[in-house]
Specification:
312 residues; alpha/beta; TIM Barrel; 5-stranded mixed β-sheet; 11 helices; 30% helix; globular; disordered N terminus
């Protein structure tokens, strides 16, 4: 029995909180099955993920669906099912379709809509299988059902996608999400749920105006001034519980940048994204080597990965 598995068993028996490191299934086990499908979530669950991620967008009739992009072009057959329904820029937006329309779409392995070719050629074949988009509520019920049948306590990790854009389109994504979370018992920092967002203003709104008492994570990509100074990190820590930077912000090669240490100093957890075996930095033998470096040397608290089994 591995030490990791033993620690999970002990944690479950003692009612302990977070496993360390925390393995977050990025769009499910998306390295093996089409992203955000229940099949990908089931595989990630079976591979031992601690949290399953849900990117959230809204349909025309206000239904929260689990879909990474606000458009449907790159992961479904929307172009062939609904020709002519794209906007002037050529993209098909989820918010322009009802849930009844979207639920009939086939989910495909991510592809380039201009060429039809797979973004990750070595992954699941494009166009194979019958996969569907699911609602946020359906996915929560699925995960909670597995928690009941297995005795585990796998958490959820929803992301508020383009909150300001959704409001410009006449819908409030954050309010819709909080209503679903409340319905299924996610309300405090003791519940197995992190809410993440790239928009710091929206995280502030969630904490103050909307009164969310659970855990919040600020996602960051590229150069982010808020992370550059200790004062900036201290300010963030008054609102959120953790940061989710891109992996490039954690280390340059095998040399940590110091961000993790600085974040820990003000009480922030660090959950960087995304470990993909197709995109390893130079100098790492394989995904397991990179995982060991990030968790044991860079000392991140958790990690988003398309391959949850790597951490096992």
């Amino acid at each position: 029995m591995s030490l990791r598995l033993l620690s999970l068993i002990i944690a479950g028996a003692l009612g302990a909180a977070e496993p360390s490191p925390t393995i977050i299934a990025h769009r499910g086990a998306s390295g093996y099955l089409p992203e955000h499908t229940l099949a990908a979530k089931a595989l990630a669950y079976a591979q031992g993920a601690d949290y399953l991620e849900q990117d959230l967008v809204l349909t025309k009739d206000g239904v929260l669906i689990v879909q990474h992009d606000v458009t449907l072009d790159s992961t479904t057959d929307v172009a062939t099912r609904f020709p002519g329904r794209q906007r002037a820029n050529g993209s098909f937006y989820a918010i322009d379709f009802t849930w009844a329309e979207i639920r009939g779409l086939r989910v495909l392995e991510r592809f380039n809509p201009k060429t039809g070719k797979a973004v990750y050629p070595r992954r699941f074949p494009v166009g194979v299988g019958e996969f569907r988009i699911n609602t946020f509520a359906e996915e929560i019920e699925f995960i909670q059902g597995l928690n009941k049948s297995t005795g585990r306590k796998v958490g959820i990790y929803p992301e508020v996608k383009l909150a300001a854009w959704h409001r410009q389109e006449g819908q409030d994504l954050s309010k819709a999400m909080l209503a679903v979370l409340a319905r299924y018992g996610y309300a405090t920092k003791e519940d197995p749920c992190y809410v993440q967002c790239f928009e710091y203003a929206e995280l502030q709104r969630l904490r103050s105006e909307l009164g969310w008492k659970g855990r919040l994570v600020l996602l960051t990509g590229g150069k982010t001034p808020l992370l550059d100074t200790d004062d900036g990190l201290q300010g963030i820590a008054k609102v959120v519980d953790g940061i989710g930077p891109a992996l490039a912000a954690i280390a340059e090669g095998r040399k940590p940048t110091g961000l993790v240490e600085r974040a820990h100093a003000v009480g922030l957890k660090v959950h960087p994204y995304t470990l993909r075996t197709e995109a390893l930095p130079k100098g790492f033998a394989d995904g397991r080597d990179y995982f060991r470096f990030l968790t044991q040397e860079a000392k991140v608290d958790g990690l988003f990965t398309d391959f949850p089994d790597i951490g096992r």
